[in-house]
Amino acid sequence: MKFLAQYIPYFDFQILQQNKMQLFLLIVCTAILLVETTRFTKYILQKHTQTFQAIPRSTNRFFSCILLYFILHTLLFYPIIRLYPQIKDNIFLQMIVFEIFQIMYCLLLFYIIQGHPEFKLIHSGIQKTNFTTIFNATISYLTYLPWYFVIIAITYLLFAYFQIPIFEQEIAEHIKTSTDWNLFFAILMVLVFAPWIEEYIYRVFLYSELRNYLSPTKAIFLTAIIFTLVHQNIFATLPIFTLALFLTITYEKTQNYFIIVTIHTMHNLLTLLYTYASNTL
């Protein structure tokens, strides 16, 4: 296990290898922690649990919205990137243009969805939200964190065992080396645009549409898989997948857009702080 140490710094694997009892106790304590945090998360979410109301079913709308996404990105976004070298060579300008297209897509989605005669605001996850609701969302995220850290540890172990090089997400690499306005825009996109846009596309629209055709369990897993694939990062596959599962389950239980946006924002903030800390230490 000596090669694992280079992937998980500050952790002495030799001690655990020599002392099997410590390793056993670590596994048991971790398992108990995960079980208890899961129970507490369920308890918190039950306070806001309600019957899920999927977007009124329309097969034509579902496939039209998916086609619209590919049209916006294939026929507009990528040609713009290729036509303007100053955008092509600047990752932050690319991100700004990308977020503009994402905002356009979300607005078009809402316009299309609300055009259905049976549409209600609850179908878009918009409902009364107060401080208690946001506080409970924060607590539920904190109880999810042990699972996230365990998944990250497992990911490190798998990459170390198969000796796969670790590459950070492109945005994380650029945040570490950016200053001034580039850094400001990067943080703005990570903490503001990404949570609001991604949650509307993948939870409010995609998951709700899938619920019209699939069981909750299948819709949750399919949404999480798609959300993970879109991020295109091998190392972050398991962590992002578990986060997507947690966000989608939370939306299934609460159908509250503001709760999942709050959780997503907190997660991105934590990741951002870790990225900054790892760059300064």
Give a short summary of the structure.
With 281 residues, this protein is mostly helical.
Which structural traits does this protein have?
mainly alpha, 281 residues, 76% helix
Describe what you observe in this structure.
With 281 residues, the protein is mainly α. 76% of the residues lie in helices and 0% in strands. It has 11 helices and no strands. It has helices spanning 13-18, 20-46, 59-83, 85-88, 91-114, 131-161, 170-177, 180-210, 216-231, 237-254, 257-280. α8 (180-210) runs antiparallel to α9. The chain is globular and about 60 Å long.
**For the report, how would you describe the main beta sheet?**
none
Q: Which secondary-structure class do the elements indicate?
A: mainly alpha
Strand content: under 5%
Shape: globular
Total DSSP E strands: 0
Mean pLDDT: 80
Helix tally equals 11
Bin the helical content.
over 70%
Q: Report the span from N to C terminus.
A: 26 Å
Order of helices and strands: HHHHHHHHHHH
